[in-house]
Design goal:
The protein has about 120 residues and is mainly α. It has six helices and no strands.
Length: about 120
């Protein structure tokens, strides 16, 4: 019985870590803290993993996500981040701002993943 209760609590906690239907993007203080953590990472792959993890747990605005993307050097990684995270931004009406530096083909690939 204790095991079942433990599993239910663990499952409930893990679900609560994911951002869903957020009411506001993360605070400036929290964002600045996450940004500093990203700046310490050496390569784009590590940054990609952290950005994905952050956006699964936190609500972010397009501008906040753009600040994260600016830390990425490799263009393909930027495209992958936008494609993966465009559905989880707080202000989806501004999603076109995420795609200003992409080709028309890249934009079309990203837009296919938008729900």
């Amino acid at each position: 019985m204790k095991r079942i209760l433990g599993l239910i609590l663990a499952f409930t906690f893990s679900i609560s870590l994911y951002a869903s239907d957020c009411e506001a993007p993360i605070s400036k203080e929290r964002f600045d803290s996450l940004l500093k953590t990203l700046e310490l990472k050496n390569n784009d792959h590590q940054k990609y993993i952290l950005i994905s993890a952050y956006s699964n747990r936190e609500c972010m605005s397009v501008n906040q996500l753009l600040s994260f993307i600016d830390l990425i050097d490799e263009h393909k990684v930027k495209v992958s981040i936008v494609q993966e995270l465009c559905n989880s931004v707080f202000d989806k009406e501004n999603i076109d701002q995420l795609m200003t530096n992409f080709t028309e083909y890249e934009k079309s690939v990203i837009l296919k993943s938008v729900k």
